[in-house]
Write a structure and sequence with these properties.
The complex is a heterodimer of chains A (about 300) and B (about 280).
Chain A lengths: L1 H6 L1 H6 L8 H26 L3 E3 L2 E3 L5 H8 L1 H34 L2 H12 L6 H6 L2 H4 L4 H9 L13 H12 L1 H12 L3 H9 L4 H12 L1 H16 L3 H6 L7 H10 L4 H23 L4 H5 L4
Antiparallel strand pairs in A: 1-2
Helix pairs in contact in A: 4-17, 5-10, 5-11, 5-14, 11-14, 12-13, 14-17, 16-17
Chain B lengths: L1 H16 L2 H28 L16 H8 L1 H31 L7 H13 L2 H15 L5 H26 L4 H8 L4 H30 L2 H6 L6 H12 L4 H31 L1
Helix pairs in contact in B: 2-12, 4-7, 4-9, 5-7, 6-7, 7-9, 8-9, 9-12, 11-12
Classes of the chains: A mainly alpha (about 300), B mainly alpha (about 280).
C-alpha cells in the first residue's frame, strides 16, 4: 500500500484534507459480509472436519477419525500427490506456451497490440464449462481428430486413448487457464523500459543475452503471479477432470466433491477440504514473502 | 521503368528487414491463436450439424438445435435465473467494494489484514468456496436456492475482483475538487454524491458489468449451493453429464456470444472510464 500512495506525486502528500468518509464506516458493510459469509463458514467447516459421520448424517463430536482415514489410505494421499503433480505440469506447460505470446504482444505496436490483446481475452470470456466441453467433440470417438485420421486413412478404428486420461485433463486445464499465465507476464513485460533493452543491445549484448539477463529477470514478478494463479486454479479443478478425465484423470477436487454430492460424508469431505486449504495457504505464505499478495492478482505490478 | 525500379528496391528492403526472429514470432502467434480458437470454431460448425450425435461426420446444415434451445423452457428459466443473480450480485458486490475502496484511500490500522480478508475468496480454492456455504447454510436450516445460497456465493466470488478493479481507479483520480468542496464546508454525503461519485461513476459501471459477467459464468461455487434451481452454466453441465444432449453445441455458441457481448461492453466501458480519468 505504501508504494501506491507514494507514487501519487506531491499533491496528495501535501494535502491537508483527508478523503471523504470515515474508514471505519466505509469498511463495516463489506467486513460484516465477509465475516458472516466467508470467515464463519470456513471456520465452521474446520469444526465439521472433526465431527463424526454415520448413518444418520454428520453429528457434532471431536474426533480425528477423518484425518486418520486420509493419511492411512494410500488412495487419498496418492490422489493429493497426483493433483499436485498435474498442477505443476499444467503450470509449466502454460508458462512455456504463454511466455512467447506475452512477449510477442508486448512487442507489437498500436492497433495491432490492442487487437492481439482482445484476441487473447475473447476465448476466456466464455464460461469455463463450455471451454472444457469443447474438447469432447475433438478428442472423443467420433471427434475431430479421430474422424480426420480415419478420413486420411492413417487408422481404421477410432483411437480410444485420446480422451479420459491424465493427458486430456492436462490439455484441458492448459486450454482453460492459460490466460491467467499470459496476462500477468504480458503486464510485467509491458512495464520494462525499452531503454534498458536498447542500452543492453548498444553495449553489444546478443538478443539471447538481452532476454536472459534483462527481460527474464524483470518479468519474474509476472511469471510468479501467473504460476501461482494457474497452480491455484488447477489444484481445485473439478469440471475439467470430471468431463475429460474419466477414472484415470480424476483429481482431489472430484474426490472432495463426491463426499458432498454423492456419498454424503460431510466430515470426511471437510477434512479433505481443510488439507487442500492448508496446501494452498502454505504455497501463498511461501510466495507471499517474495511478492505482495495483491500483486498476484493485479499482474505483478 | 523507374516505377518498377523503386518497387523492386522497396521489396528488397522489406525482405531484408524481415529477420528470422520476427518470422518466428509470426509463426508462433499463428499457432497459438489456432490452438485458442479452433475448438471454438469447431463447436460453431458442429452446432449446425444435422446429427443427434455431437461430433463428426458432418451430415448437413440445420438450425434446429438453435430452435430447440430457444424453445426449451428449462433453458430459458436458467437464463432468467443467471441474469437475476448476476444483476443482484453485481449490485451488492460493487457497492461493498466501492465503500471499501473509498476506505482504502485513508490510512488506517490493519489495512494489510483487511486486504487479505478481501482477497480471501480468490485465494480459497473455488470448490471450497462452494462447499463451506453448503455446510454452513445446511446446518442453519436455510434451503439452498438462487437468492439465498447462490447469491451469497456469487457476491463472495465477485467482491475481490470488484475491489481490485475499483481500488486503483479511485486512488488516482484528481482530488482537487473533493478537497475544495470539503474546505468550503460541504457535508460528507454532499461531497460523495455531488463530487466523488460523478467522477468515479464510469469505473463503477464498468466494474458492475465485469462483476455481472463473472457471476454469469460462475459454476464451481454454484453447483454446490444451487439446490434444484438452475443457472446457465449449471444447466449446461447437467446436460453434458446426464444425456450429452444434441443441442449442446448450439447452447455453447449462444453462451459464448452472450458472455462475449457483456464482457466487450465492460471492456469498452473500462477503457472509456480510464481515458476520461487520465485526461
Amino acid at each position: 500500500m505504501k508504494t501506491s500512495t507514494g507514487q501519487d506525486s506531491g499533491r496528495q502528500d501535501t494535502a491537508s484534507v483527508k478523503p471523504v468518509g470515515r474508514p471505519f464506516w466505509l469498511l463495516t458493510p463489506g467486513l460484516l459480509w465477509l465475516m458472516a459469509f466467508m470467515i464463519l463458514p470456513v471456520l465452521f467447516m474446520v469444526a465439521v472436519s472433526f465431527w463424526n459421520s454415520g448413518y444418520y448424517g454428520t453429528r457434532p463430536d471431536f474426533t480425528f477419525k477423518s484425518y486418520i482415514r486420509i493419511f492411512q489410505s494410500p488412495l487419498y494421499v496418492g490422489q493429493l500427490i497426483k493433483t499436485l503433480r498435474i498442477g505443476l505440469e499444467a503450470t509449466a506447460l502454460s508458462l512455456l506456451i504463454s511466455y512467447p505470446i506475452a512477449f510477442i504482444i508486448s512487442q507489437a505496436k498500436g492497433g495491432a497490440k490492442a487487437l492481439l490483446i482482445l484476441m487473447l481475452f475473447l476465448p476466456f470470456w466464455a464460461s469455463y464449462v463450455v471451454r472444457a466441453f469443447v474438447w469432447l467433440p475433438i478428442l472423443g470417438r467420433n471427434g475431430a481428430i479421430n474422424s480426420a485420421l480415419m478420413a486420411v486413412g492413417v487408422i481404421d478404428q477410432p483411437l480410444d486413448w485420446l480422451l479420459y486420461n491424465e493427458g486430456s485433463v492436462l490439455l484441458g486445464l492448459v486450454y482453460v487457464y492459460t490466460l491467467f499465465m499470459a496476462l500477468p507476464i504480458y503486464m510485467s513485460l509491458e512495464k520494462i523500459d525499452p531503454k534498458l533493452i536498447e542500452a543492453a543491445t548498444d553495449l553489444g549484448a546478443r538478443p539471447f543475452r538481452v532476454f536472459w539477463e534483462v527481460l527474464l529477470p524483470l518479468s519474474m514478478p509476472g511469471v510468479a503471479s501467473g504460476c501461482i494463479m494457474v497452480f491455484l486454479l488447477t489444484m481445485s479443478a473439478y469440471v475439467t477432470p470430471q468431463l475429460l478425465g474419466g477414472p484415470q484423470g480424476i483429481m482431489i477436487g472430484n474426490i472432495i466433491a463426491s463426499q458432498f454430492l454423492s456419498s454424503n460424508d460431510w466430515a470426511f469431505g471437510s477434512a479433505l477440504s481443510v488439507i487442500l486449504i492448508i496446501v494452498v495457504m502454505l504455497l501463498f505464505l511461501g510466495i507471499g514473502r517474495k511478492t505482495k499478495v495483491e500483486q498476484i492478482f493485479t499482474g505483478g505490478g | 521503368m523507374s516505377g518498377s525500379g523503386t518497387l523492386s528496391v522497396s521489396m528488397w528492403q522489406r525482405l531484408q528487414r524481415i529477420n528470422p526472429f520476427e518470422f518466428a514470432s509470426w509463426i508462433y502467434g499463428l499457432v497459438f491463436f489456432v490452438f485458442l480458437y479452433s475448438p471454438l470454431v469447431m463447436i460453431t460448425v458442429l452446432s449446425f450439424n444435422d446429427s443427434r450425435l455431437t461430433g463428426f461426420p458432418l451430415k448437413g446444415f440445420t438450425t434446429k438445435w438453435y430452435e430447440a434451445v430457444f424453445a426449451s423452457q428449462p433453458l430459458l428459466s436458467a437464463l432468467a435465473n443467471s441474469i437475476y443473480v448476476g444483476l443482484a450480485s453485481a449490485a451488492i458486490a460493487t457497492t461493498l467494494a466501492l465503500l471499501m475502496a473509498l476506505a482504502f484511500r485513508h490510512d488506517f490500522w490493519g489495512k494489510r489484514i483487511v486486504l487479505y480478508l478481501i482477497l480471501m475468496p480468490i485465494i480459497l480454492p473455488g470448490i471450497i468456496g462452494g462447499i463451506v456455504l453448503l455446510i454452513f447454510f445446511g446446518y442453519l436450516g436455510i434451503r439452498p436456492s438462487l437468492f439465498t445460497t447462490v447469491l451469497v456465493g456469487h457476491v463472495n466470488w465477485v467482491l475481490p475482483f470488484a475491489f481490485l478493479t475499483l481500488y486503483p481507479r479511485l486512488h488516482k483520480f484528481d482530488r482537487s475538487l473533493e478537497e475544495a468542496a470539503m474546505d468550503l464546508g460541504a457535508r460528507t454525503s454532499q461531497v460523495f454524491w455531488e463530487i466523488v461519485f460523478p467522477i468515479v461513476r464510469p469505473s463503477v459501471i464498468a466494474t458492475a458489468i465485469f462483476a455481472f459477467s463473472l457471476s454469469f459464468d460462475e459454476f464451481i461455487r454454484t453447483i454446490f449451493t444451487v439446490g434444484s434451481d438452475r443457472t446457465i452454466p449449471v444447466q449446461f453441465y447437467v446436460l453434458i453429464v446426464e444425456e450429452l444432449s444434441p443441442e449442446l453445441p448450439a447452447m455453447a455458441v449462444i453462451i459464448i456470444l452472450l458472455t462475449t457481448v457483456v464482457s466487450l461492453l465492460g471492456f469498452a466501458y473500462m477503457r472509456r472510464a480510464d481515458r476520461s480519468n487520465s485526461a
